[in-house]
Amino acid sequence: MNVKKLVTLGGFAAMGALSVCAAFSKDLTTSGPMSTAAKQDIINTLRSKGSFHRMLQGLEQTYELDNELKGKGPYTVFAADDKAWKKINQADQDTLFGNKKKLDEVLRYCVLKGQSLDSDHLYKMQGQQVQSLEGRLIDVRMTAGEKEQAFLFLNESKVKKADIKCSNGIIHVIDAPLMPPLKK
Does pLDDT of 175 surpass 70? Predict the structure, then answer.
């Protein structure tokens, strides 16, 4: 093989390697939807996900909380998606959504103010409680096992998707709406 062919083959190999590296590095950057979500506040992130209509409806009814979650933060929000809200029968949902004061209590119970706790922090808090914006405590626990195989629970609600980063905090999607205990 002559030197000219060797240099040409080497050039093609280098270009191919650079193309692979460029494609790989694009996957590792925060381009696309992920960075867009991280640039949005909590309310707009929930809107962009398309599966939080019921929670957003409640937040819009409790105007102050809706505006607060657009603010500086930081906040940790335990957000029940539309599928999770279906675990509560429609008559009870209608009663809750018809009582603005009670709805505000329930939604504030799903928010921690002044802290953006990712799943690593929550796992370290196993067996402890966190104080909600509403004022009552939420139990943090997990199933036995290593973090990768364990499930994180807030009271009886399981975290099914953790660490959705927002410009003013973080969202953890839960499988059932958090309801404050009857006693304060």
Answer: yes
